[in-house]
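Consider the following input, taken from an annotated entry for 2-(1,2-epoxy-1,2-dihydrophenyl)acetyl-CoA isomerase (Amycolatopsis endophytica).
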Amino acid sequence: MSVRWEVTGGVGRITLDRPEVSNAIDLPTVRELAAAVTAAEADDVRVVVLTGAGARFCAGGDVRSFLAAPEPSEYLHGLASEAEAALRRLSALPKPVVAGVQGAVAGAGLAFVLNADVVVAARSTKFRMAYSGIGLTPDCGVSYLLPRAVGTQRALELALTGRTLTAEQARDWSLVTEVADDEALADRVSELAETLAGGPAAALGQTKRLIRSSFDVSRERSAADEAATIAAAVTTGEAQRLIQRFTAR
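Applying the prediction step yields:
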């Protein structure tokens, strides 16, 4: 198995598990990822944690896999398309996705980060586009998501110059949420996941949806969606309990 899936206490964990190739992704890995995302849709999963085994989070696409394919172009097209679809489904889950990254995040590895809602990076982590270094172009939604996260000029700088960002720079550029000491990464990710798992699941899921969808609709449509969503939220048992607790203070 290249991707591990497990659930404990409402926390679902997706682990990229190809440490021998820095968790680079090939077609079997992408298909296992898609299956894990499907499993994460279950109602008992309240938050999803995304991590990578070994020293590096994800080195991007597995170059050797598509060079070994009978038709490299066809293979790479399928890899890019299926990976983007799986990651788009991950980002659309109606529950928070927390990523913990370490070592290196390169190429398509950035797509995993960009599709997570909260990202904690180990202090020693390096971030790099890497595509141009082997004469290739961005894939897996990176061209769409990166400018929205860091701005067009910064995205172009990363893509065209090959610049490497430190974890602190990635945080300052809004590519990641926070930076933790290397030895504290796993504990911090677990702490965040457990806090979110104990939160109002429906409200968090709808909040995520409203924010993520706002780039693709007009302000008027977004406002109408907000109004309809909060009106529906106030009728839920979850909100009623929390409102009663708040007013009883």
